[in-house]
Amino acid sequence: MSRVVIHAKSLLALAVLALALTACGSGGGPKTVPSGAVAIVGNVPVQQADLESILAARVRGARVSGQPFPAPGTSEFTVARNKIVRGLVEDAEFEQAAKSDFGIEVSDDQVERQVDRMAQKSYDGSKARLEAALEQQGIAKNEVRLRFRQQLLAAAVFAHLDSKASVSDDEIERYYDGHLEGYRRPASRPISVILVATRAEADRLERRLQGGADFATLARRYSADAATGSKGGRVGGIVRGQASPAVERAAFGLETNAVSPPIHTKYGWEILRATGPVQPAATTPLSAVRDAIESQLLVDKRKAELKKWVADTKADFAKKIAYAPGYRPAAT
Questions:
Q1: For residue 198, is pLDDT > 90?
Q2: How far apart, in whole angstroms, are the C-alpha atoms of residue 271 and residue 251?
Q3: C-alpha span between 284 and 94 (Å, rounded)
Q4: Three-state SS letters, 34-92
Q5: CA torsion sign, 35 to 39 to 43 to 47?
Q6: Which of 40, 46, 111, 183 has the lowest CB atom count within 10 Å?
Q7: Does 330 reside within a domain?
Q8: Within 13 Å, how many C-alpha atoms sit on residue 300's CB side?
Q9: What is the SS3 assignment for 190?
Q10: What is the dihedral of CA 217, 222, 225, 229, to 10 degrees?
Q11: Which region among 131-140, 159-168, 303-312 has the lowest average model confidence (pLDDT)?
């Protein structure tokens, strides 16, 4: 059976929000939870029917996959059940905060269109077949709609926060100056190498190379370094400051296409061939990285805006949540 996966660009936003809002139910909320509810968030009850539907789907999903699910009455069952309660409470917090802070609401029609798209994509438009497949995976009918609602809300919140973020030229220049070392590129030299175990073998190969033998052919046949030997000895490049002094002196001192005498290293004896000119050290100019810096700073600002909004939401809801007896999730 193929698995049905709910995709949304804003899943990361939803995950961050959920983690940050986990600790909101810290007591001092409304005095009573309405009949038929397991919690109340502000003025919004978390219905027991929603919980039971999701819980039943989890049990069915576990049975189908051959995984055990905690038995009712055990502490493990209570933890699993109340974890679902936590998710429903977080959904209610997120939805109310999005509406009160930004005027963002997601209609039932919007959610149903998402369900229709999923059904059309995977089940020829049959929502009944889609819902049956989801239940086999432990996802209840109401839960898939809750997930789509949260994804649409998260996308709208991110879009709102994106519209508020901007980066000035001064900020870009300060970032560049503060990270200048990362934009410096040391000198490098493209080379090929033949590695052998003994000086005698290295001397023999050097004589053949000086006599006109092909470097790549000898590297494929004799080099003890299988990774470079299979490529005709091609290393790619030596970067100034990242090789042993002896190898670096030889690599940067050779004429292009010239071959070095044998060099003793901790790996054995190496013969180098300079396959191109030295690439001098350089610093990437601000003009070449301005767009990338701006994009990074925008991402950072959006994250900061999201973090602040989450913190404000936590503070706002800290005393607006109450749980029915036995349904309070464990502190995390």
A1: yes
A2: 10
A3: 43
A4: CCCEEEEECCEEEEHHHHHHHHHHHHHHHHHHCCCCCCCCCHHHHHHHHHHHHHHHHHH
A5: negative
A6: 183
A7: no
A8: 10
A9: coil
A10: 10
A11: 131-140
